[in-house]
């Protein structure tokens, strides 16, 4: 068995991964993502998506061998569109700032995640017959820096060299950002554009996720995957730990999209019963569906096109209004210790909001790039790195105490501590 987590990149090199995607047990299909220019202007709707080019399926005309690309080459690719647009100049400036952050993050061993050429943590976990897991990160066309940071952190640690995991970023219609999106997809080939959706907070918070499931269904790729996850772009994912604890124990070789066995219709996520008692649903920061349940949800929304419900609550509401109950599917709940909103000031790991700690898999609400990178530094190949956690919070405590000492010295200059 060949390792699926071999590392080919050094700290200063970004690799364009056109990768091999393992589509089914013992079947390997060389599938390369379509260029954005080929599909960006195609209106994808539930009725037409079957004929629209599929970025998970279409092939590119050039070599399939992954190419190492330097930071300078990435900048050159991003500079392809006209420089006359202020929006494009802003985008390029954002790219430069992001690259600077990433170089800082990756250049120092004490700041970067533990990445080795061979990940012993992965050995024996993924096998050639395992199903493929699709992880879709919902994001904005203009969030270039966040895309780059996600690629360079948890995707680089756990997914970029693993043919059993496919990661995509899901965008609505990019509007004036179309040239930037084209350049980005030419470089990375991991963007899915739902061009029939308006880029707005309302769409993102209501129907974008379910529309992606419809697109995924109509692309004909359901049989190639066993699980599909929805992830927010302010969430980090310790993918290997999640797979080991939650997906691997629930693999079933007989799983198919028409199966109604509740044990095979899985939903995994952070329970939101503190907000709604009427029916269960997972928090939108990160949830995972078996393809059978994802197919069911996409069909239910065709029949009941609700467009004014929050996207995570919509999952539970669609199932509830269709007469589905916890007896007809299995909801595996992520505890607060593993999925939580990050707050460095809260030490109790059992709460809804708390600092990083042992067992963390899905920290959420890192709104700034600096916050995201700080959390990412506390993870290694096997998951959360408690040494890095202690160092991070130890430094923060020392800075806090120095600040207090400075205030005391200024207020009471003759006081010694």
From TrEMBL:
One GO CC annotation: Golgi membrane
EC assignment: 2.4.1.-
Pfam family, one: Galactosyl_T
Top-rank taxon, per record: Eukaryota
Compartment(s) of residence: Golgi apparatus membrane
Stored InterPro entries: Glyco_trans_31 (IPR002659)
Ranges annotated as spanning the membrane: 90-109
Major place of residence: Golgi
Record carries keyword rRNA processing: no
Membrane topology (UniProt): Single-pass type II membrane protein
Keywords associated with the record: Glycosyltransferase, Golgi apparatus, Membrane, Signal-anchor, Transferase, Transmembrane, Transmembrane helix
GO function terms (MF aspect): hexosyltransferase activity
PANTHER family named in the record: BETA-1,3-N-ACETYLGLUCOSAMINYLTRANSFERASE
Family: Belongs to the glycosyltransferase 31 family.
Protein's name in the database: Hexosyltransferase
Organism: Saitoella complicata (strain BCRC 22490 / CBS 7301 / JCM 7358 / NBRC 10748 / NRRL Y-17804)
Upper taxonomic lineage: Eukaryota, Fungi, Dikarya, Ascomycota, Taphrinomycotina
